[in-house]
Specification:
5 helices; single chain; extended
């Protein structure tokens, strides 16, 4: 009987499952937050739903190219490029909500460092 001594796989599996639960919970509860979001941005809920639909359509189309890019270029370079795009976009729009963007920037930098250090 083989004894598993390295638990990193299980930790990654648990974190991924928890992340999936949180993301699916937020996505499925979006309809409850539609009116407060529309009030906050001073627009109609139709515009918010339309922009959300465009986001989902765009991410669906982009995922087709992302798979090809991952196979062609590799995971590490694709993650580095994606994180650099996020950091650049956050730096260009830094003036809006400083605390929120600093959090996203910090997370992106942590992921970027983890990708550079890990294999």
């Amino acid at each position: 009987m083989k004894v598993i001594k390295d638990f990193r796989f299980f930790i990654c599996l648990i974190v991924t499952c928890l992340y999936g639960i949180v993301i699916n919970s937020l996505r499925n509860s979006f309809q409850f937050f539609l009116d407060p979001i529309a009030d906050y941005f001073h627009t109609s809920s139709t515009n918010i739903a339309l922009s959300s639909g465009m986001l989902m359509l765009t991410s669906g189309i982009a995922s087709l190219f992302a798979g090809w890019l991952l196979d062609k270029v590799g995971v590490k370079k694709t993650l580095l490029f994606g994180n650099l795009v996020i950091i650049l976009s956050l730096a260009l729009s830094f003036w809006r909500k400083i605390i929120t963007y600093l959090t996203y920037l910090l997370v992106s930098l942590v992921v970027l460092v983890m990708v550079c250090l890990g294999e």
